[in-house]
Design a protein that fits this description.
Blueprint lengths: L1 E3 L2 E8 L15 H12 L3 E6 L5 E8 L8
Antiparallel strand pairs: 1-2, 2-4, 3-4
Length: 71
């Protein structure tokens, strides 16, 4: 992951067989659907980049509000 300027970026990638992410059929990729829903629930951005034979990369971006450090 990366954290810079109050933005958290989580990257999950593999070098597996990949798939055509532009032609995903509804209901087949439940794990991806679940990750996307969770990212949306926390007001984050979800991206999936995949191509057949080139693996898959999932990116979740979340802006983090600064917290007042007063106790």
């Amino acid at each position: 992951f990366e954290y810079k300027d109050n933005v958290l970026v989580l990257i999950i990638s593999d070098n597996g067989k990949g798939f055509d992410s532009t032609s995903m059929k509804p209901g087949i990729h439940m794990g991806i659907k679940s990750m996307k829903k969770r990212a949306c629930n926390m007001q984050g951005e979800f991206k999936i980049i995949s191509q057949p034979g080139k693996g898959t990369k999932i990116v979740i971006i979340k802006k983090i509000k600064k917290r007042n450090k007063k106790l």
